[in-house]
Write a structure and sequence with these properties.
By secondary structure, the protein is α+β, with helices and mostly antiparallel strands. The chain has a single domain, classed as Yope Regulator, Chain: A. 41% of the residues lie in helices and 24% in strands. The protein is built from 4 helices and 7 strands. Strands 1-2-3-4-5-7-6 form a 7-stranded antiparallel β-sheet. β2 and β3 form a beta hairpin. α2 runs antiparallel to α3 and α2 packs parallel to α4. The chain is elongated, with a radius of gyration of 17 Å.
Length: 172
């Protein structure tokens, strides 16, 4: 593994999309680790509601950049159907990105991605995608916790989360 792209694996030997992603996170002050021999960066983020791991994954051959916020093994087996309903309700109407859950281990992720074939990935595109991703994860995480840990009905948890968001938006 390489810390901040400065170890034995030189990120400049990777493709141009990966180089732009590495440059963005360096310039934006995010500490990261590159997964060994892969075009994947592992990062940590602490929002208002929790701390979680993020992954910046570049697929050069497809010319795609994927950013994931991940809560590993977050949902216990007995709460996966309720969590799935909550995440499906959260996804409805989402303009950019989506929640997903691995039913085998309870990992929850929020995924944003961009296909840059025929174009160029810019710092602004990366910034918008990354910061939207972490903002959505932070916004919906309290409701997911209420469903998983407190047994709240998914529909009620979504109503609360989205009501809070509309209150904050109207105050701005």
């Amino acid at each position: 593994m390489t810390d901040n792209g400065n170890g034995k694996d030189d990120p400049t030997t990777y493709g141009p999309i990966f180089q732009k992603v590495v440059e963005f996170f360096k310039d934006d002050g995010w500490p990261f680790t590159q997964l060994e021999d892969e075009e994947i960066l592992r990062l940590e983020y602490e929002g208002e509601n929790s701390k979680w791991r993020c992954f910046a994954h570049v697929i050069e051959e497809s010319q795609r950049f994927v950013f994931l916020s991940s809560l590993a093994n977050f949902v216990p087996k007995l709460m996966r159907l309720e969590a799935s309903e909550y995440l499906t309700r959260a996804n409805f109407g989402m303009e950019v990105g989506n929640f997903e859950m691995d039913f085998s281990d309870g990992t929850v992720r929020y995924r944003t991605s961009v296909d840059v074939e025929g174009g160029e990935l810019t710092s602004t595109m990366i910034k918008n995608m990354v910061y939207l991703n972490i903002a959505v994860m932070d916004q919906y995480l309290p409701g997911l916790k209420k469903v998983v840990k407190d047994g709240m009905e998914p529909e009620k948890a979504i109503e609360e989360v989205e009501a809070e968001d509309s209150e904050e938006t109207s105050e701005e």
